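User: Hey, my collaborator sent me this sequence without any context and asked if I could get a structure. I don't really work with proteins. Can you help?
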Amino acid sequence: MQGAPPVRIALATASDQVHTDQDDAPLLAALSAAGHEASLEAWDDPEVDWGRWDAVLIRSTWDYHTRRDAFVDWAGEVGGRTRLFNDAEVVRWNTHKSYLIELEERGTPIVPTAWLARGDRVDLAALAAARGWDEVVLKPAVGAGGDGIERLPASRGQAALDALSDAGDVLVQPFLPTIATAGELSIILFDGQVSHAVRKRPAEGAYLVQIEHGGVYEPVPDVPAEAAELARWVIEATGQQLLYARVDLLVDAVGTWQVNELELTEPNLFMDLVESSAERLVVAIERSMG
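Assistant: No problem. I've predicted the 3D structure and written it out in structure-token form, which is a compact way to encode the shape of the chain:
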């Protein structure tokens, strides 16, 4: 926004993550060009005075899943001292994948999921057979970056499921072979409006799409209209005011879009891949601070 008053913004990262995220450079440059002061600050650094900043933008806090309770407490503390994006209640809600249950109850088409609470003992082969799943994907309900995710034949996954269940809540989903062809479509929205999209594909023979697992990212110049409409609808369904959001979509065997994840806490926004996307986020920040 031309003439927006300058603000001081901290980009929250983690102690072992500073200066390593692809989004940092374009966002810092765009903030500086717009006349704002910005700096990377580790969320887990006790020396940081969060109250000195006009706003804190959560970015590469990618270790939060190893100590979620502390991270949620941190978000509540920071949100009590300054503007936090996204806010502390969103952080609490979005850092446990049970948010997908709520979205499904509100009509969101999600990847079919069986939910297990910590300590549950379920016969995986029987569960999968009842749903017609041959291969399954096991996910911890608190996780990031593909950590802890396993793809297995249902007939050979019992030990892995039990181990995950011992550690926490678990999601069991069918493996969708379309991940190898169509990949995962990530749609990024600022203030509820689609900004850009990126397609993520796994390495040949793999299933995880994250770049650290060999995945490849490519910008999507023309976001499919149906996918964009679904992404906007999902954001509205949260009932939250969201500065930024990433909706990760997969397609099933008949081409229906399904929500795989809704990333509202610390998503990679791929601003290094899409020209002017960082500038669009800065404009959204300015509107939110106005």
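In plain terms: The first strand starts at residue 8 and ends at 13. You can pass these tokens on to your collaborator as they are.
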